[in-house]
Write a structure and sequence with these properties.
This protein is of the alpha+beta class. The protein is built from three helices and four strands. Strands 2-1-3-4 form a four-stranded mixed sheet, sandwiched between helices. Strand 3 and strand 4 (75-77) form a beta hairpin. Helix 1 (18-28) runs parallel beside helix 3 (79-88). The longest helix has 11 residues, at 18-28. The protein is globular.
Length: 92
């Protein structure tokens, strides 16, 4: 399982930062996951591109993070969707 995030990874307040919200939800649900960071910032689009950001676009069809790639290849985009998935599918 891979969580693609911005450079802030999962630090910061979960209420304010989408990548933190997704990471906290996965941790709370008992998952271990790899983090891959995508350079660039949403409000500065010229800073985006290359590296993991291209991988995010290839996997999800868009450049925004966070996205979660499950072990079976399924891609879940967006912090709220990732958090909902984690709550509905706790690790066994």
């Amino acid at each position: 399982m891979i969580l693609f995030t911005c450079n802030q990874k999962t630090s910061g307040p979960a209420l304010l930062h989408p990548c933190t919200k997704a990471g906290k939800a996965l941790t709370d649900a008992g998952y271990d996951y790899e983090i891959k960071t995508a350079d660039g910032y949403r409000i500065l689009p010229w800073t985006r591109g290359g590296g993991a950001r291209d991988e995010v676009k290839e996997l999800s069809g868009q450049e925004n993070v966070p996205i979660l790639v499950l072990d079976d290849g399924e891609v879940i985009s967006g912090s709220g969707t990732i958090a909902d998935w984690a709550k509905a599918n706790p690790a066994s």
